[in-house]
Amino acid sequence: MGLLAFMRLGVWLSGVRAFRKGFIGNVLGEGFVLGGVFVIGRGQQGILLEHREKEFGDKVDISEVLKAATKIPQ
């Protein structure tokens, strides 16, 4: 994405939302690495949920994570 990522409206809205909610954390570093969430099942189940950030601040739906986690046998 490079510097063009910072020109996207969604990135700025996510940043404003985070700071209004009192975000404190490590803002030093590269700054261009997007995150993700994977729920991986046991044995041959494989990946049950995959969420990759498309832009900074793109959050995973927690209900989807919980639904995928319930598919993992105890």
How would you explain this protein's 3D organization?
The protein is of the alpha+beta class and 74 residues long. It has two helices and two strands, in the order αββα. The chain has a two-stranded antiparallel ribbon. Strand 1 (36-40) and strand 2 (47-52) form a beta hairpin. The model has no long low-confidence stretch (mean pLDDT 83).
Count of β-strands: 2
Contiguous uncertain segments of 5+ residues: none
Helix content: 25-40%
**Main sheet attributes: strand count, strand direction, barrel closure:** 2 strands, antiparallel
Judged by helices, strands and strand pairing, the structural class is: alpha+beta
* Distance linking N and C termini: 40 Å
Mean pLDDT: 83
SSE string, helices as H and strands as E: HEEH
Strand content: 5-15%
**If helices are DSSP runs of H or I spanning 4 or more residues, what is the number of helices?**
2
Strand order of the largest sheet: 1-2
C-alpha-based Rg, rounded: 16 Å
- Taken from the alpha-carbon principal axes, the silhouette is elongated
Question: Brief overview, please?
Answer:
With 74 residues, this protein is α+β, with helices and mostly antiparallel strands.
Write the layout of secondary structure elements.
Layout: H1 9-20, E1 36-40, E2 47-52, H2 62-69
Please name the defining characteristics of this protein.
single chain; about 70 residues; two-stranded antiparallel ribbon; about 25% helix; about 15% strand; cytoplasm; Peroxiredoxin-like 2A; redox-active center
